[in-house]
Amino acid sequence: MINMYNSGLSIVRYLAKSNIIVQGRYASQALPQLSSEKYDVKRKNFGTVQAADINYFKSILSEQRVVTDESDVLPFNIDWIKNCRGQSKVVLKPKTTEEVSKILAYCNEKRLAVCPQGGNTGLVGGSVPVFDEIVLSFMLMNKIISLDEISGALVCEAGCILENVDNYVRNHNLIMPLDLGAKGTCHVGGNVSTNAGGLRLLRYGNLHGSLLGIEAVKADGTVIDCLRSLKKDNTGYHLKHLFVGSEGTLGIVTKLAIHCPVLPKAVTLGFFGVENFDNVLKLYRSAKASLGEILSAFEMADREAITSTSKNLKLPNPLSEYPFYVLLETHGSDEEHDADKLNRFLNKEMDSGLILDGTVTSEPAKMQTIWNLRESIAGAGLLDGYIFKYDVSIPIVKYYDLVPLLRQRLGSKATRVYGYGHIGDGNIHINVTVPEYNKEVSSLLEPFIFEEVSKLQGSVSAEHGIGFRKPQYIHYSKDRSALGLMRDLKTLMDPNGILNPYKVLPDDV
Amino acid sequence: MINMYNSGLSIVRYLAKSNIIVQGRYASQALPQLSSEKYDVKRKNFGTVQAADINYFKSILSEQRVVTDESDVLPFNIDWIKNCRGQSKVVLKPKTTEEVSKILAYCNEKRLAVCPQGGNTGLVGGSVPVFDEIVLSFMLMNKIISLDEISGALVCEAGCILENVDNYVRNHNLIMPLDLGAKGTCHVGGNVSTNAGGLRLLRYGNLHGSLLGIEAVKADGTVIDCLRSLKKDNTGYHLKHLFVGSEGTLGIVTKLAIHCPVLPKAVTLGFFGVENFDNVLKLYRSAKASLGEILSAFEMADREAITSTSKNLKLPNPLSEYPFYVLLETHGSDEEHDADKLNRFLNKEMDSGLILDGTVTSEPAKMQTIWNLRESIAGAGLLDGYIFKYDVSIPIVKYYDLVPLLRQRLGSKATRVYGYGHIGDGNIHINVTVPEYNKEVSSLLEPFIFEEVSKLQGSVSAEHGIGFRKPQYIHYSKDRSALGLMRDLKTLMDPNGILNPYKVLPDDV
Known about the structure:
homodimer; alpha+beta; Alpha-Beta Plaits; Uridine Diphospho-n-acetylenolpyruvylglucosamine Reductase, domain 2; Uridine Diphospho-n-acetylenolpyruvylglucosamine Reductase, domain 3; 4 domains; eight-stranded mixed sheet; globular
């Protein structure tokens, strides 16, 4: 039976936001192993930062914005899932595009490698150095430049935190077209560089569609100014897309213009228990047909994902235990119409048995509590010890096949295996938790999981990117001709290979 | 006063579809002047097609698919606004990607220039040869390959006609995410290559967002296979965007995968008379707020655009004369809810005086009649003799400024000057008609209009592209660094410059 949600759960903020949790644990735990040792990587033939280089950087940025103290540099060397650790000795914090340009021109000249870093919420080690790359942090490039309220065009610097920008545009009756668990920490420049997807791609589309303009700096310091904020501009090659999803290896995003849709006047959330995956799929088809243009998210999580998150983080689950859970959200302009559509859908699917139980709410605090449970899945497994995280796209009818397959393959070697994600986008996240990093489990998982995804014509990285962790698996989703063109583009744009080395491109291409 | 639309107008199909009109006029009119003479262009140092080349092409394609008869080749040499005429001697009609690959590898080897051609509905001379480039027509690559009804992913060949594909997916409760006046003739491969925008970009977004995958052939014949049909795939560089909007100069699109949204259950059209442009803008803001997620198009046309189209093509105008007209469309999943929202909007804006008079209809034939009037504006001016057509983006508050400015500048030298377009996208089409092509009017228009657009931070080509006609004006919208990167990409992808030469890139970059 459906009840309007009425418990008094407290709001727990996104775990992904709380790098504090991760960073707080360094003191009591061993540091993650060095990436170079853990993954047996050889340093490439770059220059090494010298005192004279540091002095040059200080001359551009001032003393305070050149960080060299080892303990201050440490957090920039470690990714938030504690999987990777680099060995950088220096973090630079530019405030302007001109400073970024000067730094890159100098590094290119001296063959010094650079690792751009936004909010450092990446999950494939793309945002931390591997060896002694200079970290270029965008935390001080965080200004909102302009907002056109009629067209919805926002222009801002790359280091703005997504949630801050979203709050800003909400005050002008607009929303950011993307939302993700890490929004309290991640930078919009990082979102663009990694082509972040997130929770509402189903409704508002991807960044290639939303991005209006970009300013980026090439490896040699050349500033590419494509920062127009027009919705239509067919004047020559659409250069901005080179910087979307190339993870800082072709150039570094410094500013962006993005289209913000109208803030919905009515938002409603449903959280449902479902008997099996087949019914989850049927429910998705039904929601698409019944809710049409107001459907803004359709997420699923299996029992293990929800119950372990609830247990590990002491977050209450508003429903009892079900094999599958569906979180459905609507964004609309008329509360009554939306409620009407949703009620019709609910009545139909309660009668049909696709929905076993559920809760529906429009109260912001209660919606936040349910979203929080969903979004906390990503990090909750950390408390089991170590997480192997996979983020794959699979044609929708086979969406959940890999989870039972992995459970069978790993048996008692894994603490948990669970799946959750954005079913409307065919994007499932599969997490495998173990007490600590374990080579045997790793070798049972990889490349097995990528081979299976490839057989299903899926993507071995749906939204997290390739980063440091996946270049050797990219060929499962990109053929030789595409990899050859990637290499050609890299050579064209960054001939010395100083931008985010050891990332994205496999060595053998 | 608003009346539900009830006249019995007959449906006239899109003029843009009727190449027949244009082609039918060759007999009674002089052929358009050769582009090379009209615009004083020098032939580049390409090879000339020899009998041996023709024999080679026949060996790949068979005799019938190598067209060399002068009168059969003629229509492929002329664009539909009769502005450009090339001098090609041969048209090739491949049926497979492999054939395209073989043709390009051969042409690249022999330095033979190639002009890819889809439906030949372009407005900037990009789809016709300038000298003796080999025309590569996609008219026989017109197969639909697959459709996933749950995810909405359609895969098809580049030469499919947009309207045919749209009809196909409509039978499966989906629609194509783009629609334009030329849909009965244009090819989806051409749409992608030119990043076509059209009538419903406001609702369904642009092709960079909708395109899921692409197969394209590079100048050297290498097939780049990025034809996955996943909504999320962050495995390396997002190569497909290189081919979107680069107008066949970086590679030739042979297949594509595109995301089709759900077919709306309810469609309603409103056609309104408005007092002045300021009120058009106010009405747009109000529609965005009131109609939110169901707003699918918001188009404007000035009095001259509507009355001259109505007169030239004998199409009835359902309203009397007003200074401005607005066409507003909704796509929704519930007819009652949509009517409710629209009525509320109408009552409010009739009371406020923003809408002076209008008509609202949900009957397909009547909606078609109104759309037909709007879509016919593009071609109706041909009957005045010759049209200068401009397609620019301008920040929305200045959207209409150029039209009165041009009227004043041209005075009686122009038959008519009118503006119409996609106000929701900041994209206005400005047409200037004259009895015949006239250098004085041309020099009063260009570069003046581009300078004005540049001052307003607009785009000198919003959706029509650069093609043959605008390379010399591209610098008004692209700075030197961006043009330099365009040139680098061209050299990388097509070092011999055989793909669609004389187009897009200015010579002096």
